[in-house]
Every structure is written in C-alpha cells, then in structure tokens.
Amino acid sequence: MTRAEDLLSEDALRAALPMGHRFGSVLEMHPVVGSTSDIARALAQAGAPEGTTVVADAQNAGRGRQGRSWFSPPERNLYLSVVLRPPLAPPQAPILTFATAVALADAVREVGFLEPALKWPNDLLLAGRKAAGILTEMSATEHVVDWVVVGIGINVNLAEDEIPRELAEQATSLRIEAGHSVSRPVLFGTLLTGLERQVRRCYAEGAAPILQSWRRCSATLGREVQIDENGTRVEGRAVDLDERGALLVETAHGIVRVIAGDVRHRA
Ligand code: BTN
C-alpha cells in the first residue's frame, strides 16, 4: 500500500462509500479534533440526520469507556463517530453497540484478513489484545431515544514501538497482527457500509439476529471472568447474553446478570 492509498481526506472517504449509501452522506473529515464524538453529539443536538459521520486523523481529547482516554495519534488509526436516530425505546438502545461491534468485526475480517474476537461488551481483540473499541452515548427522554452517537476507534497501522508502554501489554493493531498495512479509507468504507446494514437489520428484525452474530465472534462466552463495576465484583463463568445483551454469569450463588463493567478474562 502506498502512502497516498492510506491518506485520510474527505474525497478518499467518500470514494470508499458505495453510491446511494445513506450513512456517511453527511460527512465531516477533520485533520485534528478534540473528540469526534463531541462533534457528532453537537451535530445530533442540532438535528443532524441518521448516518451523519465525523472522522478525524487525530484526536487530542479522545475518550474511551469508563472515563478513560483513547490514544489517538495522527496518520495511523481511524477515529469516527456516527449519529443514529433509532426508533427504539431507551432500554433497547444498547443493542446498537452490539450491531456496531458486529459490523466492526466483519470489516476487520474482510479488510485485514484477520480473525477478530469480541470481548463483552464492545472490545475488538486480535490475538487476545485490544485493537478497537466502541463508545456509545445517547440522549433520551423516558420513552423515546432522541439520538445515539457510536464512536469507534481502531488501531489500524500503529507499529509495536508506537504503542505507549502502559498500553503495550493489552493493545495491538491490525498492522501488527496482519503483518502489513491496511488502507484506512478502505477500512472506513467497509465499516460504514456494514454498520448501515447491521443497524437496518436491528430496526427491522430486533435484537435477536444481532446478538446471534455477536455470539459467533465472542471471546467472552464460555470463559471464567471477573467483572468490576461500581465497587462490586462478579466472578464466575460467562454463559450467555440475555435478550438485551446483558452478560449472564454463572457464579457460586447462581446466575448474575451484568449490564455494565470491565471484564477480565481469567482462563
Ligand atoms: C473504549 O474505551 O474501548 C472505547 C473507545 C472509543 C474511542 C473512539 S475514537 C472515536 C470516538 N471519539 C472519541 O473520543 N472516542 C471514540
């Protein structure tokens, strides 16, 4: 791959999307931002339509889950946020994170020729290390979701020695695992096309088919896990997802349903 093939520009991103594709038809591409999700939120609040997409080459305030930061250097990775306007009730909205994770795994498999696994709820792992993450944010009233922003960060062409020391044990990139660079515009086009397909499938068919696809890629189900959330620890075997994507853990005291938290795989 030449450097030109990996250059992120609005033209390159648009060229990577098929004709008539709705997601990405409203597209912002920035060289550097604080966080693409902050921009997408502001656009959503101002009435931006479903599929509005914000991409950046670098972020200087990239946000991860649980208040963590997201390492977002220039010229290597993909950082994008997509506005959704789901016809779902607020308790159903978490399925969109699973739909995004399924689209992400499909894109990494197709473009990188890799075999990704999904760690509950939304980390993409390659050879046991994290290569991508999803941050889902939402605005809703009691009965109606106004907007959801899914933010996706993918370590695409980071080299091993470009990963900060404190992340080195748990982070990797597509390039490290594939042994070759991957074109970011091509990955973007494949991901956004798949995301539109999965989101439509979710609206038309409900959560069950998405969760079934997620289970097929799962790195978590069947494993011994330890989950910490708000000072509470759950330990046991991850046995399944419920109909909304909560993790069902078989513990010494029976099945515990976990709706959020950081999972550690133990065996
Ligand atoms: C995680 O903690 O695993 C979620 C990481 C999400 C990072 C992406 S990068 C694009 C978007 N903008 C952000 O500030 N965060 C998300």
Written overview of the protein:
Helices cover 28% and strands 30% of the residues. It is built from 7 helices and 12 strands. Helix 4 packs across helix 7 and helix 6 packs across helix 7. The chain is of the alpha+beta class and 267 residues long. It has helices at residues 3-6, 10-15, 36-45, 95-112, 174-178, 184-205, 207-216, and strands spanning 27-33, 53-59, 78-84, 117-119, 123-126, 129-140, 145-154, 224-229, 232-241, 247-251, 254-258, 262-265. The strands form 2 sheets. The chain has a 7-stranded mixed beta sheet with strand order 1-2-3-7-6-5-4, sandwiched between helices. Strands 11-10-9-8-12 form a 5-stranded antiparallel beta sheet, with no helix packed on it. The structure holds biotin.
Short characterization:
This protein is of the alpha+beta class and 267 residues long. It has helices at residues 3-6, 10-15, 36-45, 95-112, 174-178, 184-205, 207-216; strands at residues 27-33, 53-59, 78-84, 117-119, 123-126, 129-140, 145-154, 224-229, 232-241, 247-251, 254-258, 262-265.
Overall mean pLDDT stands at 95
Fraction of residues in helix: 25-40%
**How many runs of DSSP E, i.e. beta strands?**
12
Rg for CA atoms: 18 Å
Helix/sheet category: alpha+beta
**Cα-to-Cα separation, first versus last residue:** 38 Å
**H/I helix tally:** 7
Give the helix/strand layout.
Elements: H1 3-6, H2 10-15, E1 27-33, H3 36-45, E2 53-59, E3 78-84, H4 95-112, E4 117-119, E5 123-126, E6 129-140, E7 145-154, H5 174-178, H6 184-205, H7 207-216, E8 224-229, E9 232-241, E10 247-251, E11 254-258, E12 262-265
Parallel strand pairs: 1-2
Antiparallel strand pairs: 2-3, 3-7, 4-5, 5-6, 6-7, 8-9, 8-12, 9-10, 10-11
Helix pairs in contact: 4-6, 4-7, 6-7
